[in-house]
Amino acid sequence: MRVENTVVYAYATPRNPIDEPVTPNDFIRFEGEYPIVALDNFALIESLFFGANTHRPFVCVFGQDSIKPAQLNNMSYFHDPLSKAFINVGSVGQPRDSNPDSCYVIYDSDKNTIQFRRVSYDIPAAITRFKQHPEINKQFWMRLEKGL
Predict the structure, then answer these.
(1) What are the tens digits of pLDDT across the range 36-77?
(2) Out of 88, 109, 138, 147, which residue is the most buried by the measure of CB atoms under 10 Å away?
(3) Which positions ≥6 away from 77 have C-beta within 8 Å?
């Protein structure tokens, strides 16, 4: 985990930086309340958190439900530094949100903007390279074409 001022970066979550898979559904309120996993993680965020463990990009601002990048205007999010936001940046090599394109973010700390980017790549070539390494579980290349 890395902390820079009020921004935290980790592979998974602030609560478990190495191995806590969370999905957009973990940040949807039911009857006005977040699930415990969301509450626990928001309690550890001063302003902004970036993670990626589940390879499913989303933004959740405390007090709102999670949204996918495609729901954002121009796939861009302006962060109010006085609020708390949990950002899953997605995945460049193993996207799992039903979109096979790579997903990453550009964070501009001066403008407080997070721009999600999607980039297509040569999936058949990637699959061919995976198949050359039988020690890699085939599930990692079989799902590439569908982004699963």
Answers:
(1) 999 999 999 999 999 999 999 999 999 999 999 999 999 999
(2) 88
(3) 59, 85, 87, 113, 114, 116
Q: 71 is written with which tokens?
A: 């729901």
The alpha carbon of 35 is separated from its chain's Cα centroid by a whole number of angstroms, namely: 18
For 59, left (φ over 0), alpha (ψ -120 to 50), or beta?
beta
Residue type, 122: D
- Has domain 2-120 been given CATH number 3.60.21.10? yes
Cα separation of the two ends of the chain: 26
Token duo for residue 138: 């085939």
Contact of 87 with 105, CB cutoff 8 Å: yes
